[in-house]
Amino acid sequence: MDDKKKGESGYGIGSNVVANGILQFLNYAFPIITLPFVGRIIGTEEFGVINFYSVLVGYFTLFVIYGFDASATRRVPDLVKSPSALKVFFVEIQSSKILLLLIAALVYSILLLLIPDGNEHYKVAWSTFAVAAGWSFMPNWFVQGIRRMKELVWLNIIPKTFFLVLIFLFIRSVNDSYLYPLFISLSTVLSAFLSLIYLRLRLKMPLKIRFNQSIFNRLWSERLVFLSSLINNLNQTVSIIILASFVSYSQVGVFSLGWRMMNVIQVLVSVPILQALFPVLGVQLRSDIQEGTKLLNRSIPLLLIIVTIASGSLWLVSPWLINFFFGAEFIDAAGVYQLIAFVPLISLLNHLIGSSFLLNLGYDNDVLRVTIVASITAIILNLFLISSYGLRGAIIALILTEIILLTLYSAICKRRDLKFWSTNQWKLSLVIDHLKAIIKGGALSKKY
Predict the structure, then answer these.
(1) Interatomic CA distance for residues 50 and 263, integer angstroms
(2) Residue 196 burial (CB count, 10 A)
(3) 388 C-beta neighbours (distance < 10 Å), count
(4) Confidence label for 109 from pLDDT (cuts 50, 70 and 90)
(5) Which residues contact 199 (CB under 8 A, 6 or more apart)?
(6) Residues 143, 341: Cα–Cα separation, whole Å
(7) pLDDT computed for residue 103 by the predictor
(8) On the CB side of 202, how many CA atoms lie within 13 Å of its CA?
(9) What's this model's pTM, rounded to 2 decimal places?
(10) How many degrees, rounded to 5, is the angle at CA 300 between CA 294 and CA 304?
(11) Is pLDDT of 11 > 90?
(12) Of 118, 144, 208, 443, which is the most exposed, with the fewest CB atoms less than 10 Å away?
């Protein structure tokens, strides 16, 4: 297949699932691989500081990405047959992200002045923020849309491996803790620039920054998708921000390690498949909602089984893993993870209903309203439960928030008379056929 044909059809879902899995693994495993080494050197308190700023910067990173991984990705397949329009769209989205980065940097610098101990941890704070710069340049939204993710794998492996080695070489004491987020950020920045160079040389995509009225129009039109993604992220991460106000950074470190273990399942198992399915589901749902719903429902049993196996396996070995890799100082994190190990199952269903189904059908306002209600509830629950029960309060609040979110999404589907659940598609024979189509790679997108 030549470049032109690839650009139009991309690779099959199977290839993109594998590529997404590898890229998610690199983005998430890079810090996970080095965490035991770093954790033993810096201890639970500094570990808590790093995780606090990591979560804080995560909100700014979402601001920079602005939901384009969903909204722009679903637009790309409609433009692949018009190269000139696709290039204009590419410049518009990338320029929008750069503008958002400048705004984020200004707001972040002001926020650091308001945080009580912000001056004490400014190295960690700004080293962590640099990752937002990397994501402002990252063109994953575009490559995902044309389904050529596997071509970016090596452009991510090399930078991340290089900086991973630097972590082991240069972090020697608690005073070097800022190097950990710095090297993670630099690996993201380098991967982004290599990806852009690749798109320029291989697909002739223009590397320009153009601030004009169309950018502001784009940001305004996509505001609901952005707010939904930001607020949805708030549901699971607000616990760490609020914990830092009521307990020590050591306890924040313990909770965040258990929380990160839960995210391993979400990021390395659920997200790659969901991202690969998203553009295909979008096209199918908009052209034939019944067939799109069938495709979606045939994926549900597979995803639930995979996530259950992954979560259950990690639940069994988590005490040994933490004690062996992090030491006895972090052992309480195993208990945290074991209590929230089933949350990825609920979160998976929330993503399927909210992002894969409702957003693809254009119900952005409904998704936004649901996530706002869930986030306000999450903040209230965390403030009350953490102030009363500390670490366990944060765990309870996290679980309740996910359950409430699932209930609200289901209520929206019922109110809109949308039949999300199609359990007749959960038959073993249909699920097996669906799995075979995914494994073949490309067969799924042709079949549906």
Answers:
(1) 17
(2) 18
(3) 11
(4) very high
(5) 139, 142, 143, 205
(6) 32
(7) 96
(8) 14
(9) 0.74
(10) 170
(11) no
(12) 208
